[in-house]
Amino acid sequence: MDPTTVTTPLTNWREGEQLFRRRTSRPSADCPLSACWRRFELSFLERAQQRWSLEPTCFISRCLWPRLDSERTRKLLGLPRIHLRMAVSVITGHCTFGNHARRLGLPYNDFCRSCHDEEEEETVLHLLGTCRALESLRARFLQGGIFSDLSELSTVSLGALVSFIRGSGWLEPANF
Ligand SMILES: [Zn+2]
Prior knowledge:
Layout: H1 13-23, H2 33-54, H3 59-64, H4 70-77, H5 81-92, H6 98-103, H7 124-130, H8 135-142, H9 158-168
Bound molecules: zinc ion.
C-alpha cells in the first residue's frame, strides 16, 4: 500500500501542509525555490540516466561509467590534471594508441607493446582487461588478473585506475 494514502489524523496545520507536499508531484506555488530546483535536478538526472543506459554507442564508457554518479564525477574532477586526462581518455576510449591514434594520424603500434602478441591490437579492453603481460599490475592495482567484462571495473577507485594506467606505460605523460 502506498504510505501516502494512509489516512491519519492531523494534529496541526503544519503537519497537513507537509502531507500535502508529500502527496503533490508538482511543486506548489509557494514551494521554496531550492525544493523546486532539487525536483528539477532529480528529474533531469533520471532522464539523463535513462538516455545513457539506452545509448547504442560509447560501449567502453558505458561499461566503465554505467551510472551518472555525482560523487564519482567529483572525485574524477578532483584528480590532478594529468591524471584526469589519463582517466578520461581511457574511460572515453579516446586514447593515443590503437585505432584512435591511427584515426588521428598519430604513431601507433601494429600489435600490443606489452605482451608482443601479433594478434592483439592495442585497445582499452586489452589494456584494462585482457593483456596477459599486465596481469600482475592489474592484480596489484585493480584487484583482479583478467577482466573480460570491463563493467567489473565500474566501481574501482579512480586513483587505482590511474596508477594502473601509469604503470602500464601506455599513456606517457609526454603525450599529454
Ligand atoms: Zn597485450
